[in-house]
Amino acid sequence: MTDEGGYGRFGALSRVELERFFYLDAEDRKLIAGRRRDYNRLGFALQIVTVRQLGMFLADPLDAPLELVDYLAEQLGIEDSSCVKQYTEREKTKLEHAWEIQREYGLSY
Fold first, then answer.
1. Where are the domains of the chain?
2. pLDDT category, 6, cuts 50, 70, 90?
3. Which residues contact 32 (CB under 8 A, 6 or more apart)?
4. Which of 20, 82, 87, 92 is the most exposed place for a label (fewest CB within 10 A)?
């Protein structure tokens, strides 16, 4: 990944980088599967890979490159990745998901 993103930001992502750094494994998929709607599954996945790659949750979880959102949607079988825009409609959702991710992956802040 290029450094053009800076701290707490994504730089440009190639397909090779997406496949190497943002692959959802079986544990990830098990947690993600607990979400009922596509936009919640996609937003939850986005938060997982964001904290894993950047070491932090973003104030706006949707502040990620479109190619990353599309790649995650592809892995999850979600045809319309633009549904993720609904993820932040309920402010508390992103916070509850971040807390769950911290707990499940043993992260502390």
1. 3-105
2. low
3. 24, 41, 44, 45, 48, 76
4. 92
Q: At how many degrees (to 10) do helices 66-76 and 38-54 cross?
A: 120
Q: State the residue for tokens 């450094």.
A: 3
Total length of the chain: 109
Q: What whole-number distance in Å separates Cα of residue 72 and Cα of residue 23?
A: 8
Q: Where are the beta strands (DSSP E) in 1-109?
A: none
Note the pTM of the prediction, 2 decimals: 0.90
For the stretch 24-83, pLDDT in tens is 999 999 999 999 999 999 999 999 999 999 999 999 999 999 999 999 999 999 999 999
